[in-house]
């Protein structure tokens, strides 16, 4: 079994530098760049490959700026908060 070397550097998109979170992705022109795991996944799932670091940043930024994604996330966050937040009634019952 070969040895693996930790990835050195930081994510070209968000500047994450924790080696445990780093990965790489190949741009369409063949260049391999350091990215965090999240941005590697986003690039992998994108409809097309970015040709440059600037295109990769734009691709990631476009996904973050979508209003419908933000709205859906907010609705999900509200539903999860409501479902898992202890109600005042539960707190009172636990104290008695």
Helix percent reads 40-55%
**What is the 3D shape?**
extended
How large is the radius of gyration? 20 Å
Average of pLDDT = 80
Strand content: 5-15%
**How do the helices and strands follow one another from N- to C-terminus?**
EEHHHH
Largest beta-sheet characterization: 2 strands, antiparallel
**What structural class do helix, strand and pairing data support?**
mainly alpha
The side-by-side strand order for the widest beta sheet comes to 1-2
Poorly predicted residue ranges: none
How far apart are the first and last residues' alpha carbons, in Å? 60 Å
Write down how many β-strands occur, each being a DSSP E stretch of 2 or more residues: 2
Helix count, DSSP H or I runs of 4 or more residues: 4
Plain-language structure description:
It is a single chain. The chain starts with 21 loop residues before the first strand and ends with a helix. Strand 1 (22-26) and strand 2 form a beta hairpin. The radius of gyration is 20 Å and the shape is extended. The protein is mainly alpha-helical and 96 residues long. Helices cover 50% and strands 10% of the residues. The protein contains 4 helices and 2 strands. Strands 1-2 form a two-stranded antiparallel sheet.
Characterize this entry briefly.
The protein has 96 residues and is mostly helical. It contains four helices and two strands.
Protein traits:
single chain, 96 residues, mainly alpha, two-stranded antiparallel sheet, 4 helices, 2 strands, extended
